[in-house]
Amino acid sequence: MTAEDLKALIRTVPDFPEPGIQFRDITTLIGHGAGLAATVDHLATRAERAGAQAIAGMEARGFIFGAAVAIRLGIGFVPVRKPGKLPAETIGVDYALEYGSDRLEIDPAAIRSGQSVVIVDDLIATGGTAMAAAQLLRLAGGTVENALFVIDLPDLGGAARLRAAGLTVQSLMQFEGG
Amino acid sequence: MTAEDLKALIRTVPDFPEPGIQFRDITTLIGHGAGLAATVDHLATRAERAGAQAIAGMEARGFIFGAAVAIRLGIGFVPVRKPGKLPAETIGVDYALEYGSDRLEIDPAAIRSGQSVVIVDDLIATGGTAMAAAQLLRLAGGTVENALFVIDLPDLGGAARLRAAGLTVQSLMQFEGG
Question: Does the interface predicted TM-score (ipTM) exceed 0.90?
C-alpha cells in the first residue's frame, strides 16, 4: 500500500479535543491489518536507511509504531514516558505546551553512548514533544539525527522547527490546516 | 530465544511504585533487539493458534506488544485507552482499583460483530484491567476468549480470576511473590 492509500485510512474527527481542531485519528489506520503493517514497513525502510541502532517512541501512540519498527529491524526500543512511569533511574526534560508544561523521562541505561537513535511518533504538530525527546536522548548519550512520523501537520511548523535544530524529518503523509 | 532467556532480560526494581513492591521492569527486555522480537514471536504464535482476528492492547505498555503481534499476524490492532484519549465515538467501563477506580475506553467501530479479539498486555497482576478490557470488547460485539501476557504474577491471582470468567490465559513467564 502506498502512503496515499494509508492516508485514506486516517479518519478526521472535527472539534477534538477542542472546537475548531480537525483531529487526524489513527484508530482507523491501525485497525486495518494491511494498513498497519504497511505503515510500519514504510517507517522501517526509512529508519534502516537512517542507520538506526535503536528506536525511541513517545507514550502512548508512539509505542504502537516505534516498537514495531524496532522489531522489524531487530533492534531495541526505548520508551519515552510521562513522569513517574519508569521504575529505575530516569532522566527527564520539561518542555512548554501552549498552556502549561509537560515532562518526558527515559531510562538512561537504555541508550549506549554514541548509539544512533531514531525517533518515531504517530504525528508531528508543533514539534514540542519531539524536540524534548531529542534533547533527552542526546542527554543520555544518543546520537539523534532523524525523526519519523506517520502524519505531519506542516502548517503547525513542527517539522520546520526540528529541521532548524539539525534533525532530518520524514513523514508518510501530510494534512494541511493543522 | 526461549521464554527462560527472555525472563533473564527482565529487571527487578525493588520498592516501586511503593515500598515492598518488586517491580518487574520490561525496559531492559524491550531494549534488547533480539529479546523484543522473540517476545513478540512467542506471543504471535499463541495468538495465531487462538484464532485471533484482531489484537487489543491496553495503554500504554500493552501498545508495545499488542500492535507488534497484530502486525506479525497481518491483522488490526484495537487500542484500549484511558478516558478522553479517543476522539470519535467511545464506549467505556469503570473498574475498581485497590484504592479508587479507573476507566477504559474503546472505539466500538474498531470491532466487527463476532470478531475474535485476543487481549495482549505486558503483565497480569490482579487482572482488573484485563477483566475490564474483556468486558468492554464484548460490549462492542467482539468474541473474547484469550488473553496473552508477557509476565504473570500468579500470587496476585489475576490469571485465576480471568480463567474463572471463562478466558484462556497464557503468559511467557511467571514471577513468584507479586
Answer: yes
